[in-house]
Amino acid sequence: MSISPSDVLKKNKSLNKRVDIDKINLDNISIEDIKFNGNNYNQYINLQSLLENVSSCQISDAFNSISRRSGTIQSIKPINNQKVWGSIFTAKTNCDDWGTSALAIDAAEDGDILFFKVNSEDMAIWGELASSCAREMGIKATVIYGSARDLDALLYMDYPVFASNFCPNAGSALGLGTLNKPINVEDVEINPGDFLFGDENGIVIIPKQLFKQTMIATLAVKLKEANIISLIDDGLTLAEIAGLGKK
Q: N- to C-terminal Cα distance for the chain?
């Protein structure tokens, strides 16, 4: 296969380049641009520049502004306080079946985030070995509506894990769950390919069809908050900025 001059130029482009917040352009982005595919350099760089500088709070505020929904699942909390974003690969299983976790690792694509819905928190379906394997396979993070274990290792691993609980015991390698099908968690519909953002505050899930609109709204929230901080630095109080000062 021949290599064209444009191919060489693409290879020389730095994926670590970032754009200042006030220069970010999201006009042509889609959810596919959270991964670099060789042809979406500008969209990828602009999107990374945004996502690296916002929080789940700002994304939730933005999503609420266009949908009147928070996108959050309150019971799921960060285990090791790491930021992550990506497209969701879903799995559903019983708490005595960690084998479905192993199957999900093999079935997911590079850059995916695994999201497990588990019927109970009585046993853990995820731990140190699963995290180590998933990280090696290029999976970005694991989110569990259920229990994880091995916190002595997970707390210090370079692999984000979110869960609704943790416990020391696990089940067996049954592999009886379902993979990459729509699920519902606490009245939040989650479909394969939806967007997930997680950090120290928790997780936010954005339906893929609302991704672009939510990212544009997130940029607006970020710029507005930056302006408010500037006003505070200039001596105004938050009450004055919000129009709550004394009449």
A: 73
Residue 188, CB-side half-sphere exposure with 13 Å CA sphere: 24
CA distance 163 to 144: 4
List, as one string, the DSSP characters of 209-234.
Answer: GGHHHHHHHHHHHHHHHHHHHHHHHT
* pLDDT value of residue 243: 87
List C-alpha distances in Å: 81 to 47, 104, 143, 160: 22, 23, 12, 7
Enumerate the domain spans of the chain. Answer: 14-68+209-234, 77-206
> pLDDT class for 241, splitting at 50, 70, 90?
confident
Residue 207 and residue 31: Cα distance in Å, rounded? 10
Q: What is the pLDDT confidence band of residue 3, given thresholds at 50, 70 and 90?
A: very low
Q: Is the pTM of this model over 0.70?
A: yes
Assigned token pair, 121: 């928190």
* pLDDT mean over 122-150: 98
What's the mean pLDDT in 124-137?
98
| Closest to 108 in 3D by CA, of 123, 83, 84, 86 | 86
Q: Which two tokens stand for residue 108?
A: 């997911």
Chain mean position to CA 4: 35
How high is the pLDDT of residue 130? 98
Homologous superfamily assigned to 77-206:
Ribonuclease E inhibitor RraA/RraA-like (3.50.30.40)
Between strands 195-199 and 202-206, the pairing is antiparallel
